[in-house]
Automatic annotation (TrEMBL):
Signal peptide (residue range): 1-30
Organism of derivation: Rhamnella rubrinervis
Family statement: Belongs to the glycosyl hydrolase 28 family.
Protein name per UniProt: Exopolygalacturonase
GO-annotated molecular function: polygalacturonase activity
Length: 400
């Protein structure tokens, strides 16, 4: 009886000493709110999988009640798969100075994810470091016609982030897309350098879906697919000061596969496209569901030897796997193209092919000067199911 009483008495003390020791240990791993991955076991030898150390540094930082930074110092790390999840107790920064390599080849731990940041507000990813997806070790072996399980991971996923900033970092040779945004609200992306070879498959630079208030500025994107693609549920997207190329350009869509797809509010301004297949493009599937693409401004854009600088394609049908006889049901309106100049590598400098059943409305074309130099004659424009309002001077002339 006596013994038990003593135990009950002592128990809280033992507990609090234990707690004290534990928190001292946790604090020893963080100096002034900086959680260095090396203090959590990362070895940076370019071989060892440091995933556990990264996630452990993150989890400790995320629990901090004051602003915390996860620091990845210079060095070469291998991370197989890492999910950095919030919500965190305070604003949190992931500061990358090293190079993080994915595992090479097709046998990734996860078929869809590599590095994931999700469920946070006031998050910052910054630094001059590199996320290297090792894509070249996977692209040639990944033949979907021979292997139906041909999914490859997206390098960086930002999902459900609010009031956050992504800046400075590089993404190189993703296996699938470089960056995917889902459910983000008020996100700024600046000074990014995104690169993969021009013949690399499906290596979209930044794909935006179900997100609003997104700003992409002062960035260089050269890749094998769209530099930026803007999908279903995107609103209030600004893209400024972006150099795109090589790649397929900046594209809205393709819209119309799923129910009621909408993209509303996009500005692309002060951007340069070099040697891209397309410049600015809106694409929708034929035989589609209802949907809306509205309030787009394309302004102050330079095209250097771009395949198709200005495109609306409501008969988008790659591999001919759709019914071109049935018109798209996506409504496109309030679109302006102004101050777009440079060279087109094909004759088709301006191609606005709208839906027969839902013609494009309120399309404005301002000053345009797109030149094609080739044996096949000067640049031309094509318009169907659209009567654009013309303001200023257009080369090629817009023929309705
Ligand atoms: C982000 O903002 C949305 C809309 O305001 C809100 O519903 C959501 O809970 C927020 N998420 C986080 C992680 O703060
Ligand atoms: C985010 O956190 C920083 C401090 O790290 C603070 O200055 C800033 O106001 C916060 N922003 C928002 C939108 O909460
Ligand atoms: C972007 O990154 C690529 C690959 O690391 C590099 O070759 C290129 O110089 C970088 N560009 C800029 C503008 O930093
Ligand atoms: C986009 O730019 C417009 C003005 O051009 C501005 O009103 C809007 O707030 C900006 N949105 C974002 C997300 O930066
Ligand atoms: C256009 O973008 C370039 C490259 O980011 C930047 O240096 C320049 O200041 C921008 N110009 C304007 C008028 O915003
Ligand atoms: C497009 O912009 C106009 C003018 O700013 C606004 O009145 C309209 O509601 C916007 N359209 C949509 C679908 O949000
Ligand atoms: C198109 O723009 C006009 C004027 O800015 C606006 O009143 C209208 O709501 C817009 N239409 C859509 C579908 O956004």
């Amino acid at each position: 009886m006596m013994g038990l009483m003593r135990f009950i008495n002592v128990f809280p003390k033992v507990c609090s000493i234990f707690f004290l020791l534990f928190s001292v240990a946790a604090n020893a791993d963080a100096v002034n709110g900086v959680f260095n991955v090396k203090n959590f076991g990362a070895v940076a030898d370019g071989k060892t999988d440091d995933a556990k150390a990264f996630v452990s540094a993150w989890e400790n930082a995320c629990k901090s009640n004051s602003a915390a930074t996860v620091l990845v110092p210079e060095g070469t790390y291998v991370v197989s798969l890492a999910t950095f999840t919030g919500p965190c107790n305070a604003p949190i920064v992931f500061e990358l100075h090293g190079v993080i390599n994915a595992q090479p080849g097709l046998n990734t731990v996860d078929k869809e994810n590599w590095i994931v940041f999700k469920y946070m507000k006031n998050f910052t990813l910054t630094g001059d470091g590199v996320f290297h997806g090792q894509g070249s070790t996977a692209w040639p072996q990944n033949v979907c016609s021979k292997n139906s399980d041909c999914k490859l991971p997206i390098s960086l996923r930002f999902s459900f982030l609010n009031d956050s900033t992504i800046q400075g970092i590089q993404s190189v040779d993703c296996k699938f897309f470089h960056i995917n945004l889902l459910g983000c609200y008020n996100l700024k992306m600046r000074n990014l350098n995104i690169s993969a070879p021009k013949d690399s498959p499906n290596t979209d630079g930044i794909h935006i879906g179900q997100s609003s208030g997104i700003e992409i500025s002062s960035s260089v994107i050269g890749t094998g697919d769209d530099c930026v693609s803007i999908g279903q549920g995107s609103r209030n997207i600004n893209i400024t000061g972006v150099y795109c190329g090589p790649g397929h350009g900046i594209s809205v869509g393709s819209l119309g596969k799923a129910k009621d797809e909408q993209v509303i509010g996009l500005t692309v301004r002060n951007c340069t496209f070099t040697e891209t297949d397309n410049g600015v493009r809106i694409k929708t599937w034929p035989d589609s569901t209802d949907g809306l693409a509205s309030n787009f401004t394309f302004d102050d854009i330079v095209m250097n030897n771009v395949g198709s600088p200005i495109v609306i394609d409501q008969q988008y049908c790659p591999y001919n796997k759709c019914n071109l006889q049935v018109a798209s049901r996506i409504k496109i309106n309030n679109v302006s193209f102004t101050n777009i100049r440079g060279t087109s590598s094909t004759k088709d400098a301006v191609s606005l092919v709208c839906s027969q059943n839902f013609p494009c409305e309120n399309v404005q074309i301002g000053d345009i000067n797109l030149v094609h130099n080739g044996p096949d004659g000067p640049a031309i424009s094509t318009c169907s199911n659209v009567k654009p309002t013309l303001v200023g001077q257009q080369t090629p002339p817009i023929v309705v």
